[in-house]
Design brief:
Blueprint (H helix, E strand, L loop, with lengths): L3 H4 L7 E4 L2 E16 L10 E17 L3 E13 L4 E15 L4 E8 L29 E8 L5 E8 L20 E9 L5 E10 L11 E13 L2 E12 L3 E14 L2 E12 L4 E12 L7 E11 L14 E12 L1
Antiparallel strand pairs: 1-2, 2-3, 2-17, 3-4, 4-5, 5-6, 6-7, 7-8, 8-9, 9-10, 10-11, 11-12, 12-13, 13-14, 14-15, 15-16, 16-17
């Protein structure tokens, strides 16, 4: 993923400009049908239908040429087979100051720099995310120092309140760290931006009050290659370690551009859950389309097959072996 230094003065999505203010965002609506065989340890409904709707508003404001403030607000209302809820959350709220051409200071709440997969729907290669995203951190709050020693290399060093918080903690227990955490992200971009390699490392401290607050170490090696016409290949290897477990996630995928309005994605991911003594796996295929020819409107289709390995570990609402089909309407503002 890009470093904060590269994103310091750029809004997260195409935006409407009103002077120094930019307004952007998206509306994301999804229909899911899921068929579960009830083989897991916590079997639920054999078949469910689910509708989800969410939106995000993104506000950016430039103060001169060197300072940018960004606020992203999520508005999500969703219902699945276990919970019902309406949420409004601040996904990002930060101020970035480009102190020089090579260095940027960012203070506030930002999307995680760990791992490959994007946080927002318009930046995904499919409707949902892979298994590896289940153990990846979410937003973090703190201070980031980003610098670019060359055109090919960018580095972020940061100190944050916690790698994981109550909103982004993985499903498995023992990954919540809410005390000071430290991390570094190094991105190498190849010639003509035909590939990048991202190395992320973070260490978080818990208060040792129980399984939910342990010291945690996160390592991710991920990247993307787009040197072949119409084909993009990507992958992520992420390991999350605590005193009690070492969980390893692997994801590989490819996207092929069929024509100007369609592309197809194939993705496989797995996680080796140490404490649960189980290995979960997912295979997913997605068709991404712009039926009106406008890049700001997409209708996307996805089918995924999840093997829970009798672990009871949840993915896309399923704790058992499941096949999930999804249809998404996605509109980007503007």
């Amino acid at each position: 993923v890009p470093t904060l230094g590269a994103l310091a003065l750029v809004s997260a999505a195409p935006a409407i400009e009103v002077g120094d203010l930019t307004i952007g965002g998206f509306v994301d609506t999804i229909f899911y049908f899921q068929d579960s065989d009830g083989s897991g340890s916590t079997a639920g409904d054999d078949a469910i239908m689910e509708f989800e709707a969410g939106a995000e508003l993104q506000f950016g404001y430039k103060i001169g040429d060197a300072v940018n403030a960004q606020v992203d607000v999520e508005l999500n209302g969703e219902q699945d087979n276990t919970t019902t809820g309406e949420t409004v959350a601040v996904e990002q709220a930060f101020v970035s100051w480009a102190v020089s051409d090579q260095a940027t200071l960012t203070l506030g709440k930002v999307e995680t720099l760990v791992g490959y997969e994007a946080v927002d729907a318009p930046d995904l290669w499919r409707i949902s995310t892979s298994l590896v995203d289940d153990i990846s951190p979410g937003s973090t709050t703190g201070l980031n120092i980003g610098f670019a020693p060359s055109e090919q290399v960018s580095v972020d060093v940061y100190i944050v309140d916690g790698i994981y918080d109550t909103d982004s903690s993985p499903i498995a227990a023992g990954k919540l760290s809410d005390d000071l955490s430290f991390g570094v992200s190094i991105v190498f971009n190849g010639p003509d931006d035909k590939f990048f390699v991202d190395l992320d490392f973070a260490v978080g401290t818990g208060d040792d009050s129980g399984a939910a607050e342990e010291d945690v170490t996160v390592f991710s090696l991920n990247g993307e290659f787009s040197g072949v016409e119409k084909l993009t290949i990507f992958g992520d290897i992420t390991q999350v370690s605590t005193d009690a477990s070492d969980d390893l996630g692997i994801m590989f995928g490819a996207n092929y551009e069929i024509d100007d309005t369609k592309s197809a994605t194939a993705m496989i991911s797995m996680i080796d859950w140490d404490a649960a003594d189980a290995s979960t796996m997912e295979i997913a295929l997605a068709l991404l389309t712009n039926p009106t020819g406008d890049a700001n409107f997409a209708v996307n289709y996805e089918i995924s097959i999840y093997d829970a390995d009798d672990s009871g570990i949840q993915h896309l609402g399923a704790t058992d072996d499941a096949t999930t089909f999804g249809v998404e309407f996605l509109a980007v503002i503007p």
